Amino acid sequence: MLELISLTKQFGTKTAVERASFKVDHPMMIGIIGRSGAGKSTLLRMLNRLSDSTDGRIVFQGNDITRLKGSSRRHWQSRCAMIFQQFNLVPRMDVVSNVLHGTLNQRSTLSTMFNLYPQADIHRAIEILDRLGIAEQAPKRAEALSGGQQQRVAIARALMQDPAIILADEPIASLDPMNAQIVMQSLRDIHEQDNRMVIANLHTLDTARRYCDRVIGMRDGRIVFDGTPEQLSTNVARDIYGADASFSEAATSTQIDTLDRETARLLEEAKAEALV
Ligand SMILES: Nc1ncnc2c1ncn2[C@@H]1O[C@H](COP(=O)(O)OP(=O)(O)OP(=O)(O)O)[C@@H](O)[C@H]1O
Fold first, then answer.
1. pTM of the predicted model as reported, rounded to 2 decimal places
2. What is the C-alpha to C-alpha distance for residues 54 and 235, in angstroms, rounded to an integer?
3. At 263, is the secondary structure helix, strand, or coil?
């Protein structure tokens, strides 16, 4: 249903993504891992057509989406909704209005200007918030919510678009371990219950292993691993991260049952050192 064929992105002389190819036959949850600068965000941005590829193709359900323009490009962008590390909500706007923003592509300029939403959309927004366990936050300003709640609002906004694919660029990188798990479980539930594809850039191995059906590892712009969580051994991980023998898996862990915040901070430091 989704195929990337030799997708490449150059920024001047820098090749951020080099001939990335993979094929997805049915909706699944995919984690993309790799060290900082490996090309994960660039890959996701090309998929969503936020950024144009330099070469190669993206094919979804038989349609080449690589060169879509204007309204067809916007239509594709609502078919593959994107969520970001920093949530990208309008902080002073209430939660439900933020969620309704997910329908912007489908509404006229006039109704957008006057913030007019059909009653059915408002009900749907509340239903989605309820499903994500945050319906009672609906009237509050987005900025009044915790990070984990804000990310769930961003997921709700994405769901308003009824997307076939949800692309998540480091969705839990700004969250504490507890909220990280809640957000990852929400994405997993959305995949399982709605049969939507989820592709998430993740910076921790254990998260990829725990929540994803398939893991893609990137190094220096190339896909160097594509397999199941079981196939993602420590040696493979070491290869993806380009770390030497001192590479420690624990340094990429966010499990709340084993970590408190201080330990997590120390491990983050250890991870940074291992990757230098
Ligand atoms: N707009 C840009 N202009 C020039 N170079 C860029 C641009 N965006 C990304 N790059 C470069 O492309 C490479 C891949 O960056 P990218 O952000 O995709 O990596 P990443 O794996 O997502 O890293 P991180 O986890 O830090 O976000 C990096 O070397 C980066 O400096």
1. 0.86
2. 32
3. helix
**Cα–Cα distance measured from residue 223 to residue 226, given in angstroms and rounded to the nearest whole number:** 7
Question: 14: Cβ below 6 Å to ligand 1?
Answer: yes
Helix %, strand %, coil % of the chain (to 5): 45, 25, 35
- Cross-strand partners of 213: none
Instruction: Using the mean position of ligand 1's atoms as its centre, give its distance from the Cα of residue 42 in Å.
Output: 6
Alpha helices in 195-260 (DSSP H): 205-211, 234-241
Contact between 193 and 239 (Cβ < 8 Å): no
DSSP letter at 69 equals -
Residue given tokens 């929540």 in the structure block = 211
Domain 2-87+165-275 has CATH 3.40.50.300: yes
Report the amino acid identity of residue 164: A
- Which of 17, 32, 41 to mutate to test ligand 1, by most ligand atoms within 8 A of the CB atom? 41
Distance of CA 170 to the CA centre of its chain: 6
The segments of the chain whose pLDDT lies below 50 read 254-262, 276
In degrees, rounded to 5, the angle at the alpha carbon of residue 37 between the alpha carbons of residues 181 and 221 is 105
Whether 221 contacts 38, CB under 8 Å = yes
**Protein residue with its CA nearest to atom 2 in ligand 1:** 11
- Atom 25 of ligand 1, residue of closest alpha carbon: 36
Tokens 């109704």 sit on residue? 111
Quote the ipTM score.
Answer: 0.95
Q: pLDDT (tens digit, 9 = 90+) per residue, 51-93?
A: 999 999 999 999 999 989 999 999 999 899 999 998 899 999 9
Strand positions, DSSP E, the chain: 2-11, 14-24, 29-33, 55-60, 63-64, 80-84, 165-169, 197-201, 214-219, 222-227
> How far does the centroid of ligand 1 lie from the alpha carbon of residue 40, in Å?
8
Parse the chain into domains and list their residue ranges: 2-87+165-275
